[in-house]
Design a protein that fits this description.
The complex is a heterodimer of chains A (about 45) and B (about 500). Chain A is mainly α. Chain A has one helix and no strands. The N terminus of chain A is likely disordered. Chain B has two domains: about 190 residues, Up-down Bundle (Growth Hormone, Chain: A); about 230 residues, MFS general substrate transporter like domains (Growth Hormone, Chain: A). Classes of the chains: A mainly alpha (about 45), B mainly alpha (about 500). At the A-B interface, helix 1 of A face helix 2, helix 10 and helix 14 of B.
């Protein structure tokens, strides 16, 4: 294989997988951020 | 199973989408990042025997040292007694000692065996550690907690922390900082998810016979095992020599980004390794010292002003002091958020302004900010004080996230994971140095009669001094001399040992 390029044309399906993977880690992370902000707002209340 | 874990099995197929690798790394880092959130278990564990009220250890009847040891372990003449905070706090020490040492010891093994095997072993250690700890809580043996979560879990932390570094750097040669920043952001964010989740679970499991901790440990073990195994099996390594289509290194920064490779066993013989060790240690020492005292510092510096009363902390009623403590807890939560944000923002920025330029900002701006904090306290400006420390914490997190890319720039990518593992001993050192420095300086100031509201001023100037030292370490960084690089023959040998000789894509 050549050193460049062969992996640079991901299929449309792979982008669906990317979306699923990022959602799987993104949802818990956003929940954690929300819980932290919920506590932090006391500082400004 | 062993075959599934081999490095050859993780080589990406043609048209693999490299954006699948960062979430795999995040799944592992978000799981092991719960290490920062373990304090959520302290209060329930201090009531694990008595449930409603803590059962103190009866230390009157037996003699001296043995009785004290039995008290620490939670046994007394009249039966089991509750563990003390000081005994539980050893878990933190064990976490970071074993994180640093296992990263240093297993880094070279990881480079040979690949990230998937390291990720699976990390999952087994981290989740298995929770199970052993659950048994420790159930049978009331604190040594099982130290062994389970502290030692075995700590080894899992080290393996998990370094597992994606080398792989991400190889997948994202064009955005090394951003790629490692995304993963290391997860380690900072793990407690933000894990601590409230553990709190919910403990409330769910708590009953008349249990504070709900061992059941929570078992549940978390299962959740983290699934998440980490998912991450480990999501890892793919790029074929040898892979680069993004059409990508060329930026010629402007080429001098500070080598295309050669330094062997792991040669890296620590270069002054560059020790300069970067100093950079990481000094940056982390200053930040970790602040994190440890953030809550009491805000309360002592501003006292009643946090709730609109012009009086020092010691003159507040119990109810007023509780309100101040709640606001201080909100401050620590805000700091953790900025710590995480700094990891991704600064590391990504380093791809544009260079790693040396990024640390130049950390150390110069950081020193100014630390030196300005006492001024914000003197003028009683809470918003300015909070803003200063939020910005400082972004640079603390950014320091962690940018260092793997700095190492790859200086030493090449062949051994970057292993070299990073060894560099993490700087973190272990800073974990002791920073808090000790901050706490002892404060006590020394108070002992001299300095009012508690001003007791942190000298500490802040000392921390600014640490950053000035870091500034000069970073300033001295130059490209590694050619004599330290591996020859083509040595590189070929290492790649063969690391099963990279035929790392062509599988069809």
């Amino acid at each position: 294989m050549s050193e460049t390029g062969n992996h640079e044309h991901p299929s449309p399906l792979s982008w669906v997988l990317v979306a699923i993977a990022w959602t799987s880690v993104g949802i818990p992370l956003l929940w954690g951020i929300f819980k932290t902000l919920e506590k932090a707002k006391l500082l400004f209340g | 199973m062993a075959n599934w874990l081999s490095k050859q099995r993780t080589i990406a197929r043609p048209n693999f989408n490299r954006w699948l690798v960062p979430p795999a790394a995040l799944a592992i880092h978000l799981s092991i990042g719960m290490a920062y959130g373990f304090s959520v278990f302290w209060i329930p564990l201090e009531h694990a025997v008595g449930i409603a009220e803590s059962v103190p250890c009866d230390t009157d009847t037996a003699d001296g040292i043995i009785d004290s040891l039995r008290g620490i372990l939670g046994y007394s003449d009249s039966g089991p007694c509750d563990w003390q905070r000081s005994a539980l706090g050893w878990l933190y020490t064990l976490f970071f000692v074993f994180l640093g040492s296992s990263a240093a010891v297993f880094g070279h093994w990881l480079e040979r065996e690949g990230p998937r095997k390291a990720g699976v072993y990390a999952a087994c250690c981290w989740a298995g550690g929770f199970l052993i700890s659950a048994a420790g809580v159930y049978w009331h043996h604190i040594w099982l907690l130290w062994l389970g979560s502290g030692v075995i879990g700590g080894i899992g932390l080290g393996l998990g922390y370094i597992s994606p570094v080398s792989t991400l750097i190889k997948w994202f040669p064009d955005r090394r900082g951003m790629a490692t920043g995304m993963a290391i952001m997860g380690f900072g964010g793990g407690a933000m998810i894990g601590a409230p989740l553990a709190d919910l679970l403990m409330k769910y499991y708590a009953g008349p016979d249990s504070v709900g901790v061992w059941e929570t440990f078992v549940t978390l073990s299962a959740i983290y095992f699934v998440a980490m195994m998912g991450g480990a099996f999501g890892y793919r390594v790029p074929p040898l020599g892979w680069a993004p289509s059409g990508w060329q290194p930026n010629p402007k920064r080429k001098r500070m980004i080598t295309s050669a490779h330094v062997h792991l066993n040669m890296a620590h013989k270069t002054p560059h390794f020790w300069l970067l060790w100093g950079v990481l240690c000094l940056n982390v020492s200053a930040g970790i010292g602040v994190i440890g005292v953030a809550s009491p510092m805000l309360q002592e510096v501003f006292g009643g002003k946090l709730i609109g009363l012009d009086m020092p902390l010691k003159d507040l009623t119990v109810e007023q002091a509780a309100r101040v403590a709640t606001i201080a807890a909100a401050f620590t939560g805000l700091l953790s958020l900025f710590n995480i944000a700094g990891r991704i923002v600064w590391a990504s920025l380093s791809d544009y302004i260079g790693r040396k330029g990024t640390y130049f900002l950390f150390f110069s701006l950081g020193a100014v900010l630390y030196a300005s904090a006492p001024f914000a306290g003197e003028i009683e400006n809470v918003a300015l004080f909070v803003a200063i420390f939020c910005l400082i914490l972004t640079m603390y997190g950014g320091g962690f996230a940018t260092i793997p890319a700095y190492l790859a720039d200086i030493f090449g990518t062949q051994f970057v994971g292993a070299i990073h593992g060894r560099l993490l001993t700087a973190w272990s050192t800073a974990g002791v140095l920073g808090p000790v420095l901050v706490n002892y300086l404060r006590e020394y100031q108070v002992g001299l009669g300095v009012p508690v509201a001003q007791a942190y001023n000298t500490t802040m100037y000392v921390l600014a001094g640490l950053l000035v030292m870091g500034f000069f370490c970073n300033l001295a960084m130059r490209p590694v001399a050619a004599k330290y690089y591996m020859s083509d023959k040595e590189l070929a040998t290492e790649r063969r040992i690391a099963h990279e000789g035929g790392l062509e894509s599988r069809n």
